[in-house]
Specification:
Blueprint lengths: L1 H16 L11 H18 L2 H115 L2 H13 L2
Length: 180
């Protein structure tokens, strides 16, 4: 019981030391806080602050949606351009291969023509050389015949002049005249 009495004394002493709660215009501090919050909320509702905040957020959402749509359109366009350039590259590679094949064909044709021209030129030059050799042979044969004829004429003249005299010549001339 002594504990109880000590507790009662302690409670009475604590109550005696408590200060009275301050009040202004009959309102305690928690009441002032509640009143100011109520006024603030009513003022915000009257000025339509929540509606302004909602419209601001809606505008931000709309702007973000618009940017997302633009980004999607840009991405689609970029994909389209990428596909187009991939096609162009593939076509360019095909064209390059065709050009190389065409150039090889032309080179082969040029080589074949050059070989044919070379063969024709060689044949022409061979014929020319053969013709020159034949002409030289004919000229040599003609010259040899001429020299042979000259030598035969000279030898015949010499023989005739040494074996024939005027008497023998007269007999030959008479014989030739008689043969006519």
């Amino acid at each position: 019981m002594a504990n109880l009495a000590a507790l009662a004394l302690l409670a009475a002493g604590a109550a005696a030391h408590e200060a009275p709660e301050p009040a202004a215009l009959g309102l305690t501090p928690p009441m002032w806080v509640a009143l100011s919050m109520t006024v603030l909320i009513v003022l915000m509702l009257v000025l339509k602050v929540p509606r302004m905040m909602a419209s601001g957020l809606d505008a931000s959402i709309a702007q973000i949606k618009k940017q997302l749509e633009e980004a999607k359109a840009l991405r689609a366009e970029a994909e389209k351009l990428r596909a187009e350039y991939a096609t162009r590259i593939a076509n360019a590679e095909k064209d390059a291969a065709a050009m190389i094949d065409h150039a090889r064909g032309e080179a082969e044709a040029i080589v074949a023509k050059a070989q044919a021209d070379t063969a024709a030129t060689l044949a022409r030059r061979e014929k020319m050389a053969t013709d020159k050799i034949a002409a030289a042979e004919r000229a040599a044969v003609s010259e040899l015949r001429a020299k042979t004829a000259e030598a035969a004429t000279a030898a015949a003249r010499k023989l005739i002049s040494s074996h024939h005299n005027a008497k023998a010549d007269k007999a030959l001339v008479d014989e030739a005249i008689g043969g006519i």
